[in-house]
Queue: 3 jobs
Job 1
Amino acid sequence: MKPAIVTLVAALTCASFADTIRLRNGTEYEGEVLAEKDDHYVVRIQVTKSIRDERKIPKTEVLEIVAEKKDAADFEAIKDLVPTPDLLSLEDYEKRTSAVEKFLATHSKSRLAKQASEILKTLDKEREAVAAGGIKFESKIIQSGDRQSRAYPLDAQIAAAEVKRLSEARDFTGALRAWTKLEKDFGSSSAYKDLVPFAHKLFTSQKAALDKSIASFEERLNKRNEELEHVAERDRDRTRRLIESQSKAYEAKIETEKEEGEKWLSLDPYHRAPMVDTSRKLAQELNRLDRLNPASLPDGDKAWTDAWNTLSGSPDRSAATTAVSTARGARIPTRYIEILEAKVPEK
């Protein structure tokens, strides 16, 4: 939005830190007019993001003051709320709709109200679908009924997308954990089979990075000790205690992870053993994936779809139980089998 040029008196009543004070010599300041005197203005100048300076500027030097309108500033906070990302929770939608509703209540006369209303309309439509049991995935709203009919293959796709998301966010430990979950729950899905090359690449790159970090462990440790010696003596003990505290906190964390049966432990560049353990496990995973033939795995997606379609018709009990048994044989997890069993006729 193009800022509106206002009078200096109006600026005094509508000032914000986004005001621009323009002088006749071409100088511009970002700041706020604090007071108007007979011959000058008291202005708080935004010198940097964290530094403000209060100055007196003669009126004869001021060309104009350009003030950003409040509605434009508030609209900046909501304009990117749509399109929404995938897999937002109902709570997330409610927070977004609440923010837009607040804007409309405050700026009902703004020329930006129409755009805000369109944003709210989109959010409301998606929120209603999510409240009814739907989800947004791959930028599309999947209604509750469709989601249920595609439960196993769809959840597998979501789990696979999470592996990629965490990897792209450079949360490699999280990505390894997500891969393990995908393999455990959806090992017969197309999403798992399609992700095997990606996982192989992820394991390979992570092992190389870890091996490099392991090789430089002693050098890194010595460098930290040398840097500690250059810390001012009055701060050295405090810094050493901080390092020890962080180390103990990390060790406690991985002990908890071990007790919980976590395969992929959190890593720290100053703790060698977990890195060595993870590198060894990555080597094992790579060896296993090299021998894996995805084509030899059951077709879980087809087994689920066939069972769902059979059970959604009017099957006799024998056909229904056969469909469920076939799905179970395709290594579909118990929680999905229970969904199918609930559709088996009693007689």
Job 2
Amino acid sequence: MFSLTSTADLFCDAGLAIFYPQPCSVCGLSVESRFDGVACSDCWQRARLISPAESLCYKCGAPMPGTQPAHATDLLSCHRCDDASYTASRACGLYEGALRASVLALKREPHVARTLLLLMREVCRREPLAPATVMLPVPLHPQREQQRGFNQAAVLAHALARLIALPVIDSALLRTRPTGRHRAGMDALARRESVERVFTVAQPKLIAGERVLLVDDVFTTGATASACASVLLAAGAAAVLVLTIARPAR
């Protein structure tokens, strides 16, 4: 069955490449597999993924090249995230190339490439995200979601839930007022102020005692994740672990 399925996939991909060619959003060459979404396999191979073997800030997951803990039991810290409310955050890789193209495509169409989902599943299975017990997408304000037609974070969470054994709770966390879009160049303080008192927990019983996996597309300064985590922890969550597609290199 596996070989027949694989053969069928190859024929399907070949047919799509011939009759419905799709240029890679990164390099412009042809995307040969529908599993790769908007980026070709070569661009996925070049994607700057974050390896668990790298030196990372334990809390925010920022790469810290050239840094090593003083002792085997020490946890590295960039200290830029000391005041953040979330327990820990991890991203699949850096916001560039195939990952950036996938994020931008997800804002236009509610589809997640299988290649990306498999990367997210791998990150979920590692520490510190592995102990998560439920998934929550970062909510959009209803007005913004109506304009877009969907919440990309919820699309990610539900697609990922089909690969891992974690329930998704859409109704527990709400965005109570609209906020302006985060603009390029906004510093951490401006982003933090823009999401203050924006989120609320509508159903605290659903997250009490749970280790929440908070899902979003991009982790920039962590302001949104921290604002969500603050209300979730106040409502009784045991931990808030953050998973995103990408983050900036910093």
Job 3
Amino acid sequence: MQLEIRGQNLFLSPMLVNQVEQRLRFVLNRWGDWVGAVRICAFNGPRGRADQRCRIVMCLRPSGQVAIEKTAPDIATAIDLAVDRLERSLALVLKRTRETNRTRTRKEGHT
């Protein structure tokens, strides 16, 4: 899994970056074969420093992508919310993919 974390007009402390890396690797480890590159971008929201945003874009193998964006009063919370949502979205996408594959396999077996 390739992982890129950057702040856009926003400083991300090395400690925060390390925590995010560890959490993402833990969360995404169980889907290792499905996960390609993951890009996290943290930036100020439309109200400037009053809100912070985190956007996560994850490429899936063999194809596809999941994109999440969350806003919170501080960047650590925004990242945390985005990672939580990413985990739920990934579980849903992979569940649908497995169900589709099972349906195709059943149809092919009956023809």
